[in-house]
Amino acid sequence: MTDQRTARGVSDRMAGAISQVAAAGALIVVFVVLSIVAPSFLTADNLFNLGSQTSVNAVMAVGVTLVIITGGIDLSVGSVAALSGVIGVMLMAEYGFDPTLAIIGGILVGAVAGLVNGLLVSVVGLPPFIATLGMLSVARGLVLIATGAVAVFGAPDSFRLLGQGVIGGFPIPVLLIVLVAVGGYVVLTRTKLGRYSYVMGSNMEAARLSGVPVRSYTTAVYVLSGALAGLGGMIAASRINSGQPNFGEGLELDVIAAVVIGGASLFGGRGTVLGSLIGAFLVAVIRNGAVQLNIGTFYQNVLIGVIIWIAVWWDRYQRRKLSGDTG
Amino acid sequence: MRKPLAIGLLLTLTITAGCGVEVRRPTGGGAPGENVRLAVVPKAIGFDFWEQVRVGAECAASKHPEVTMHWDGVTSEDDVSGQQSLLQDLLAQGVDGLVYAATDAQALSNVSSTAVEQGTTVVNIDSGTTPQPKNVPVYATDNVAAAERGTDLLARQLGGKGKVAFVEFQPGTSTNDTRGEGFERGLAKHPGLKLVARQSSESDYNTALQVTQDILTANPDLDGIYAGNEPSMLGAAEAVRQAGKAGKIKIVGWDTAEGQIDALREGVVSGLIAQNPFAMGYQGVQATVDKIRGRGEQRATDTGATIITKDNLDDPDVRKLLNPSCADPPR
């Protein structure tokens, strides 16, 4: 029994590594092609833009990776990001909060939404899809109630630093990607929360029976996802120095796409921070390059959809091959 | 204090609506003095533009004490099926008049004709349907003509030549495409203008910022931008501002949200194409009431567009247009 499970763990890890390599390979290919066909692609300015543009999705993808590893899903991240963004900006514009406090406030709003998701899943027992689908709607509704559906302006100029600032030549949003990625990596590989997440995602019942406090860890994962959605929302708000009530509609799909392209399995038990980051960058590079080549949005969407198919097909193909080899 | 009150009110309204058990008459309200129930449905609730439509609609409704007006809409302008359901629900509730802006010209044509068949008075504002039922008038901006005038302004500001980009918002929708058509007609008149990029913002401020950044990267010598709506222009302006090219790149575009007017004063934006949303709301409701009462003739009307630059921004007529009120309505 133990041997079998270890074998499965090893093959899972190998399959994960393979999908990561595939995604990284795709990223490199797209990168090289774009550098050749779009002369402005490989310029410092564009890489600067690209990094900043990816930050929102990348930060959120790290949170969603955790959730997906446990076998869950978080459909609410786009709405939650919008809620954090508008409330964060309102804290500054209407209640005179200092930007730092307002950013923390926005992240806390996201964490609270994540806590509700987590409790709905772990205590009430709703399927994650339903719990977070409900939150997608609830958070969007709260955004519209709080703002009257009108954008919130009036944050101080210093708030722009979060999404537009530079430290030592690096855009702050890019440094935030690094920070969140390192944090996510440490959580996943060096903490009980991370290791139990893989265990829960591989076999929830087995995890419960072997004494893993499933409820609290599940809740914690959704809280982290919510908080990172909150951070993503604050970065997006800072990039345009305003809170937009319609921000993030459909964003959850881009984020989940990034995580899946990066090799995470929607059935749980598998996924890495690095893979999801590669996925987020792949989606962003394609969009960035397509605009530079003046390819229309419709074609960009088709392209990204096709890449999702290929990524998941590759994933399943490799898994089948591996289980065939080892089993 | 305002917000808890608003939430309380909302809850009360919801509960009241939920508990409403009065028997609804399918038609009626024709005779003077009888209560007339109108529903006004914008493409989406929120956005400055639709709020101004609402001010106009409520203004017209307030002139008729026996008219009650219900304002409702979906939250996203591309939620076509959501709007369709909402309109069907309102018709099922038996409103006497329906004033709405179609999120999709073809999909909603049936809703209009069904409504007319069952005796409901229908008026379109901002966007009509294809086909447009004969007895459903449209009160809207002539987008093609106004876009052409906007393009003329951009051409003038660029001295008749230069590279330009078009940040559109929802390719495939009639508003987007008619604004594109007018722009293309304008370009044809000014052969010195060269269109180097056409990208969609998906009506999202962040996306508009990103695509404009990428357009600027690919075309460092860009001279002008034509933006199809509010988020497209705000994002384009922000990208130009962040690139340190404010004022060097001319931006002309649609709508007049607060952020756009600030950008015009600041000099990042050089021209706004202003519609008259107040007039759409006002005339739409007025026409519906008249029609139910059997007064006058209602026909499709261009509610007009005004080109706003720094020079006329503080004219009294422009101020009235930008901050419409029922007490002092814009012309």
TrEMBL record, chain A:
List the GO terms this entry assigns under cellular component, sorted alphabetically: plasma membrane
Principal location: membrane
Q: Could you confirm whether the keyword tRNA-binding appears in this record?
A: no
What is the superkingdom listed in this entry's lineage? Bacteria
Parts of the chain that traverse the membrane: 21-42, 62-89, 101-123, 129-153, 165-188, 220-241, 253-286, 298-314
Per UniProt, which keywords does this protein have? Cell membrane, Membrane, Transmembrane, Transmembrane helix
One GO molecular function term of this record is:
transmembrane transporter activity
The name under which this protein is listed is Monosaccharide ABC transporter membrane protein (CUT2 family)
Name the species this protein comes from: Prauserella rugosa
From TrEMBL, chain B:
Q: Which residues form the Periplasmic binding protein domain?
A: 39-295
Family annotation (SUPFAM superfamilies): Periplasmic binding protein-like I
**The protein, known as:** Monosaccharide ABC transporter substrate-binding protein (CUT2 family)
Q: List UniProt keywords, sorted A-Z.
A: Signal
Instruction: State its location(s).
Output: Cell envelope
- Which family does this protein fall into? Belongs to the bacterial solute-binding protein 2 family.
Concerning InterPro entries, the annotation shows:
Peripla_BP_I, SBP_2_dom
Q: Which GO terms describe its cellular component?
A: cell envelope
Q: Which GO terms describe its molecular function?
A: carbohydrate binding
